[in-house]
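B., you asked whether I could sanity-check this one before it goes into the benchmark set. Here's the sequence:
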Amino acid sequence: MSLLYPRLMPNIAKVLHADYKKMTIDELGLQAKSQHDSAVFVATGGARVSPDKLLEVRNIVLKLATTAGFPEKPSADAKNTFDLSVARYLHSELEMVPAEAAAGDIWAFLSLVVLPDVSYWRFLDPPGDRVLASDMTRHVFGRLWWRAQLVYESNKSDPYSSIDQIGGEAFGQIYERRASLGASPLVVRNILKVWSELDPSSQKRSVLRDFLKRLLRLRAFVAFEAQSEDGLTQTMRSALQESIDALLPGRTPAKTLAPDENEIVQVSYHHDRVAVCLAPPPSEP
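And here's what the prediction gave me:
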């Protein structure tokens, strides 16, 4: 059975955030607790998480933060190490289903009630959306749970093996486009797979943005989830190759696959149309 987590109402969360911005990390640590008088649970969908479980979550996340240098100001590498380890932990141990994880009020409770010191350490002087969960793609913990969710593959010995194939900022660009790309684990995993094939010198922000724009345009014409695994990978490689040709001419990063019949093998963009080229049918013997 999945667990239900307490929800901190937005008006209360905003008041706490306004107060916490004025406090030191040590003072914030004194505010940490597992319950809040104004928190509520939804009526159905699982068992309510216990205060002891929330204290366990706090202790483990705090330990991971300490490993990354908490309470000292974290380096970029320390932030990345912390994010990856917390993403794995939250997704594997919270016993939370996606419907529950989509509620921003849950993440506001974790960041402002259970882990205020760690939240304001990870993002110094954070804007509201980092702790209030008004934008899930930016929340200090919510974005990590979803990052793990979108790369999770239960059939692998390490279900999170793809989680470090792309940096947090680059992953954010994918997740921010969740309405079209970032909501599908299959699409996200293939984007990461193709992107990781690039030479590191070609993994530029401008290339990723152009690549994602091409996929967004293609999404209007192609149901990615209807393609085979290899077919979708080849579609992604074709779009990425277009980006490389446009922005880094002369480099050839994309691998090739022998396409199946009716799989997309090339996509080209024009001012008035998108041309989708399919593999020719096999020749008659």
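One thing to flag: Residues 257-261 have pLDDT under 50 and may be disordered. Otherwise nothing jumped out at me.
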